[in-house]
Amino acid sequence: MTTAPLADRLDGLLFFPVTAFGPDGSVDLDTFRAHVRAGVEAGAAAVFACCGTGEFHALTPEEFHSCVAAAVEETAGRVPVVAGTGYGTALAIRYARLAAEAGADGLLAMPPYLVVPDQAGLLRHYTELAAATPLDVIVYQRDNAVLTPATAVALARTDGVVGLKDGLGDLDLMQRIVSAVRSEGLDLLYFNGLPTAELTGPAYRALGVHLYSSAVFCFAPDLALAFHRALASGDEPTVRRLIDGFYRPLVELRSQGRGYAVSLVKAAVRMGGLDVGPVRPPLSEPAPAHLDALARLLDDGRALLKETGA
To answer: How confident is the model at residue 1, as a pLDDT?
Structure first.
């Protein structure tokens, strides 16, 4: 495994695989491995295992360790593996240690469970997590974990905290965070972490945020990579066509059901021929009409690729 810092290795399209479950509801490691392997072979720049799309909330510690270890084995050092962690501080540290044991390269620290902490509490949570693990930590801002610029600066000064993934979508706040950290002569890696990040990709790039997580890569890497190439190269006509003809309708479909940021993605992976099973409760499967709409949308997206030659 490479010894290069995680921050130096994250450059490209970030893959957040789903976690596969078998007919009896248990983790299907063979199918999960196939999913990870296909993503890396398709061109993923990193694998973020057992995070939001991977149903971190639904995994036991033992299942989490097995999945992270499988992802590490399948990537074989070709790209970094970042594992999710979360809940309260004690459990977040436990999952962090399991991830380190499994060979992960870093952590995505999801919001603390249930409580709505103040800034001092958030800072203490992340600094204690970072101090307890040798792995680099990316903080995931969303829901009940929203940072002020001053807290972001404090985290940028914290050993082991290397990045901030934004799942909130407040561009004004992100601009102030980026500016405050930069003004102190500090640095963080910033990620667009909205559920369908491509839709807001152009807006985040204007802030200097070039990295993003792509749920679409899970089930349509051809579409995800074509969009990523167009965005990175400044091919605005292709970016607009893919947003208008695929990504905006996908976001509108995703908004039709609770938990569709995960269950709709998993359904699309199954449509592609890999049986990753259903989501675990408390999530539920998409409605049949929405699955039909998803299939049509995928056809439309691929037709756009042919038209644009992307």
So the answer is: 45
Tokens 């965070």 sit on residue:
177
Look at residue 2 in the predicted model and tell me its pLDDT.
55
Residues 6 or more apart whose Cβ sits within 8 Å of residue 160: 130, 131, 133, 135, 136, 137
Q: Any idea of the CA torsion for 2, 5, 6, 8, to the nearest 10 degrees?
A: -100
Catalytic residues: 140, 165
Which residues are CB-neighbours of 233 under 8 A, at least 6 positions away? none
The low-confidence residues of the chain, meaning pLDDT below 50, are 1
Answer yes or no: are the C-beta atoms of 272 and 18 closer than 8 Å. Answer: no
Cα 301 from chain centroid (whole Å)? 22
**What's the predicted TM-score (pTM) here?**
0.96
User: 275-279: long-range contacts at Cβ-Cβ below 8 A with a sequence spacing of 24 or more?
Assistant: 275/20, 275/31, 276/18, 276/19, 276/20, 276/21, 276/28, 276/31, 276/32, 276/35, 277/20, 277/21, 277/22, 277/23, 277/25, 277/28, 277/31, 278/21, 279/55, 279/58
Cis peptide before 282 (omega within 30 of 0): yes
* Distance, CA of 238 to CA of 103 (rounded, Å): 39
**How crowded is the C-beta side of 295, counted as CA atoms within 13 Å?**
11
Identify the pLDDT of residue 307. 87
Contact between residue 137 and residue 107 where contact means Cβ atoms under 8 Å apart: yes
